[in-house]
Each structure stands twice: as structure tokens, then as C-alpha cells.
Specification:
With 340 residues, the protein is of the alpha+beta class. It folds into two domains: 216 residues; 94 residues, no CATH class. The chain is built from ten helices and twelve strands. The chain has a five-stranded antiparallel beta sheet. Strands 7-6-8-9 form a four-stranded antiparallel beta sheet. A three-stranded antiparallel beta sheet has the order 11-10-12. A hairpin with a 2-residue loop joins strand 4 and strand 5. Helix 2 runs antiparallel to helix 6, helix 4 runs antiparallel to helix 5 and helix 5 runs antiparallel to helix 6. The protein starts with a helix and ends with a helix.
């Protein structure tokens, strides 16, 4: 009986085999990507990081780095590109070996080691970004006192006139997915599920996994800093919390506006690069409180007197919107109509 209890279940074996296959695939696909977006490069620049090489617009990025004093990027200078394919291959082989050994203890060791490797890899990546972004050539053609050029570990960061995005690529998502599959196997075999009812036991774990992934890939809005942030359309400082607006691209870059009209104008001029963007507008009755454009009720009237003449205000319920429409001699308008 004891011997049977120490063996892996069929589900765990299948998940581990799939995890191993995903790891092998990740060796041949880009694991991470850093994208640079600037007016002079309308289609953007991309640095693709594989397990064993760099790809994408490496030469152009190296040329730009030279002007600001950053070291140029060469794969042969990174020991990681030599050992990383073997490390990933080791974990793929380890996963297959755990299935063959058929022992829960082996699974626990695999999962703990894989999590530790993931943490070490991200710390090493951050260290690499820090060194390249801070150790600058003092004789560079362009020197901005106090400026560092470290890209974000994940997400978006403004670097002079470049917007830098750092996100997992296909191989990175495969790597994360393999870790999740190992985690599910670990959860099942360690009998954590016994804390939940049979019918509902798997649901909390799936929900947690989904939320963990969502937090990584879903872009979020950020508070508008009044009297400090500038409108990304007209360049004016945002001072009135009642009329400000914001859009977030699918990659997480945030654009801020002093008027809903400015956001509409910016959207019209840049529609091609704003696919799947999320739009927010200030709650007229709450200082600097942003609401999703899909949930608000908009009114428009000259007496609202917004900064750039859009003269539109947003409310979180229809009754209040009607009340203020009467007060300001305004009419209700529809977001869909405004964007068509």
C-alpha cells in the first residue's frame, strides 16, 4: 500500500511529459523580447532573446546604444547563451526521468529546482539589464546627467524618446506553462486538493493560475499625476481631474490626456498601433478616479468647458449622467458613436 501511495498518478505523468515537450520547444523559439518604440522608428525595433542567441534588430539597437554610451550586445559575451540550452534540456530530461522513476519525491525535487532556476534566471536577467543600463561610456556622444537606460524587467518604461517594452515571447510563455504543469502535478500529488471539496477542489487552483497569468499579460491603467503629467496629444500639463483620460496599449504602454477629445484625436491618428488598447476616462464626480470607457455614461455640452474643448464628462451610472446633463444643458453621447 505504501509503495502505491508513493507513485505518480496518470494525470501527473501526462502533465510532466507535456511540460518536457514545451521545454524542448522553448529552446528553439525566442524566450524574451524587448521592443523599442519611437517616432523615428514607426514600426518599432525588437531585440529577440533566444536560449542561445540574440536576434531581431540587433545591429540597429547596437548603433543607438553606441551614441548613449551603452555597451554593444554580442551573444558570445554572455555565458548564459552557452549554458542555457543545456539547462533547459536538463529540466526536460529530468521531467521525463521523473515519469520513468515514478516517485513523488522525485517530482517534488523537480518542481522545487525548477522554481529556483526560474528565480535565479530572472535575477540574472535583471542584473544584465542593470549593468548595461548603468555602466555607460563617459565619452559617449549623448550624455544626459543622471540618466540610466536600464530596460524594465517586465512591462513598459520610458527611456528618453523611446518607449521600452519587456515581455516574454513564445518560448517564455512555453517555459511558464511548463512550470504551471509541474505545479499542478505537485499540487495533485502532495494532496493539497484534499483541503477542498471534491467537486470544487480543482477550481481554486485553476482560478489562482489564471489570475497569476492574467496579472502578467493584462495591461493596467495608472493614476494620472496632476500638474506633472503632460497630455500625449497636445503636450499640455494635465491639471483638471474631471476631464482627464488615459489609454493603455496591449503591451502595457500608458498614454495620458487632459481631455477626452485629445484621446479621441490621438486614437484617430494612431489607430493602427492601438489594436486591443484599453480606454479610461476620469469620473467627473471623483477626483482623478479612472473608469473604463466601456462602463461609463458620457454627456456632452458647451457649458462643461473642458480644457481642450471636448466638453465631455463621464459618470458611473445613468441616473447621475441624466441629472448633470440637465444641469449643464448637455446630451448623452455614446463611445461607439464618437469613435466611428
Amino acid at each position: 500500500m505504501k509503495s502505491t501511495e508513493n507513485k505518480l498518478g496518470t494525470l501527473s505523468k501526462v502533465l510532466l511529459i507535456v511540460a518536457a515537450a514545451l521545454l524542448v520547444t522553448s529552446i528553439f523559439t525566442p524566450i524574451w523580447r524587448i521592443e523599442l518604440d519611437a517616432p523615428q522608428y514607426p514600426e518599432g525595433l525588437a531585440l529577440l532573446i533566444y536560449a542561445n542567441k540574440l536576434a531581431g534588430d540587433v545591429d540597429i539597437i547596437n548603433g543607438l546604444n553606441h551614441y548613449i554610451g551603452m555597451k554593444t550586445l554580442h551573444a558570445e559575451e554572455f555565458i548564459e547563451f552557452t549554458v542555457l540550452p543545456y539547462i533547459i534540456g536538463f529540466y526536460a530530461l529530468f521531467s521525463f526521468l521523473v515519469v520513468f522513476i515514478n516517485k513523488k519525491k522525485a517530482l517534488y525535487i523537480l518542481f522545487a529546482a525548477f522554481v529556483l532556476f526560474g528565480i535565479v534566471a530572472m535575477v540574472d536577467f535583471w542584473r544584465w539589464e542593470y549593468n548595461y543600463g548603468h555602466n555607460l561610456d563617459p565619452s559617449a556622444a549623448i550624455i544626459v546627467p543622471g540618466m540610466a537606460y536600464q530596460p524594465p524587467l517586465i512591462g513598459f518604461k520610458q527611456l528618453l524618446n523611446f518607449g521600452a517594452y519587456s515581455i516574454p515571447d513564445l518560448g517564455g510563455w512555453l517555459f511558464i506553462a511548463s512550470g504551471l504543469l509541474m505545479g499542478i502535478s505537485f499540487t495533485v500529488e502532495s494532496k493539497i486538493l484534499k483541503r477542498f471539496k471534491k467537486a470544487k477542489g480543482i477550481t481554486p487552483i485553476l482560478v489562482v493560475s489564471f489570475l497569476a497569468l492574467s496579472s502578467c499579460i493584462n495591461p493596467k491603467s495608472e493614476p494620472i499625476k496632476l500638474n506633472k503629467d503632460k497630455c500625449d496629444n497636445c503636450g499640455m500639463t494635465i491639471t483638471d481631474p474631471k476631464f482627464a483620460a488615459e489609454l493603455v496599449t496591449k503591451k502595457g504602454r500608458v498614454y495620458k490626456y487632459d481631455d477626452l477629445k485629445c484621446m479621441l484625436n490621438y486614437r484617430k491618428d494612431n489607430l493602427a498601433k492601438l489594436e486591443a488598447a484599453q480606454y479610461y476616462v476620469s469620473n467627473f464626480l471623483a477626483d482623478n478616479g479612472l473608469l473604463s470607457i466601456e462602463t461609463v455614461f458620457l454627456i456632452k455640452g458647451e457649458e462643461l468647458n473642458s480644457p481642450m474643448g471636448g466638453n465631455m464628462a463621464a459618470f458611473n451610472n445613468k441616473t447621475t449622467a441624466y441629472e448633470y446633463a440637465t444641469k449643464y444643458k448637455a446630451t448623452l453621447v455614446n463611445w461607439t458613436t464618437l469613435t466611428n
